[in-house]
Each structure stands twice: as C-alpha cells, then as structure tokens.
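#lab-general

N.A. 3:47 PM
ok so I finally got the sequence cleaned up, no stray characters, all 296 residues accounted for. can someone with queue access submit it? mine expired

B.Y. 3:52 PM
send it over

N.A. 3:53 PM
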Amino acid sequence: MADKFSIGLVQMRCTKNAEENLARAMERIREASARGAQIVCLHELFLSEYFCRAEDAERFNLAQPVPGPATERLAQLARERKIALVVSVFERRAPGVYHNTCAVLDADGAFLGKYRKMHIPDDPLYYEKFYFTPGDLGFPTFQTRYARLGVQICWDQWYPEGARLVALQGAQVIFYPTSIGWHPAERAEYGAAQLDAWRTIQRAHAIANGVYVAVANRVGFEGDPGAGDPGIEFWGNSFVADPFGQVVSEAGREKEEILVVECDPAKSEDTRRNWPFLRDRRIDAYQPILNRWLDE
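B.Y. 4:20 PM
back already:
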C-alpha cells in the first residue's frame, strides 16, 4: 500500500503587483510546509489579479514562459523545503499563442511538466477565450516524490471526463487551482446555489473516481466599480474532499487561509472495493460520448 502524504492549499488575495503576489505566495508555501504539507497548490493565475474581467490586449504582457522566471523561483523554494508544488501561470508559448497553464515541480525542484487548461469559458467578467488557447497536452498525471497527482484548472472542474481520465492513470489526488466568485448582480439571487453547485460537482468527482480532490480558490474583491469595472467577489471556500466526497477541510469565504490535510491512499482502496464504480464501467458502450450531440 502506498504511503500517506500531506497536501497544502493556499487561499489568498492578489494585487496587480506580480512580485508582491509571488513573495506572499512563497511565504505561505513556507508556512504550509512548516505545518507538514508535502505537496502545495496555489490558486489559478496567482501572479496577478484575475485579469480576464475585460478584453485588453495589454494584459498579454502579464504572460511568461513555462518553465520561466516564476517557476524557477518556485523551484528553488521546492528544493529548499523538499516539497512538490502545483502553480498556475499565464503562459506565453509564442507570439499570439497563450495558455492558462499549471506547472508541477517536484521536491528536488525538478520541472515535471505542465497541464494546459482544456475548457475555456467565455462569460461576463470571465473573458478567457480572448486570452487563452485551449490546452493541447491532454490530461496528464505527474509522479511526485510523495504521490501521483492530476491537475485541472477552474472551468475544467465542471466536466467529469478530465477527472476520470487522470484517475484512470493512477492519480491519487486531483488539484483544481481556481478563480471563481460572484458577479455582483447575481450574488443575492443565485450566490448560495452557485457555491453549492461548485462544491457539489467537485465532491462528485471524488466519489465517482475514489480519489482525493483538492480545490484552491482565490479570495477577496477585485474590480473598480467607479471606473466601470463591477468586479468579482471571489468566494474562497477552498476545500479538500476525501475519496467518498466527504469534505475533510474547508476554508471560509472571506479570509486568507492555508489548509493542510493528510491523505491516505488506503482510503481510496477501501472506497473502491466497496463502491466499485471503476469495475462496473461499461467501456464497450461509451463510444457515443465522443460526439458533440446525439442526433436522432
């Protein structure tokens, strides 16, 4: 049986200053490590405010190569603290080709690879299709010193297919770096239901696949209503669910927090023995799912 491992989630606010955000993230990573975390995950696009609230070509200047300056700094920290890191960066791949990317760094600072966000939203205040080319690396998993992990990014969390594919490759935990919150005009009427749906769909991925799910969301208000930017109130609520979907640790809606959770692969084994969803899959019957829609 695989050894137990501990994961850490950093829930934090961000400013427009990339260096400030990186320094604060590194400080919180050190704190998570001091509390026993062996794999630490930051939220989506942690180096800046969530810039996709508007379409602005100048914001492409926020991007950098992956690996690149930010991952090199973080690799030094990973090596120093002997921890693995999951870090979300706006990737500049080539002129005119940019991705929403997660780099995975091992406990010796080695760059294990990256995941590029596959599902790209386009909603009011979430104009991601303007900035991001859809991912083209599929749904990889990464063997760190402590555990095999999968990564999905924010909008990916609403789709069961990616979670299933990384689980079938042996992922013991799926990390979801996230930047999600309330549109000011919607919170009063829909806010509670939106938050509940978000939590429920990711707990369902844990249940359906018998894996740990770890969700790191940003927190705080970002915007400038006086300048015509209504802003987003990011709802925090970062959490870890166990292989049967039980929430074992959860942050609040307003404060910066660090969660540290011990994960036991034996719990996945026990869950899958008693709820054998993977055994009973009808892989001979699923070909139609590759169609966009099933016409009569």
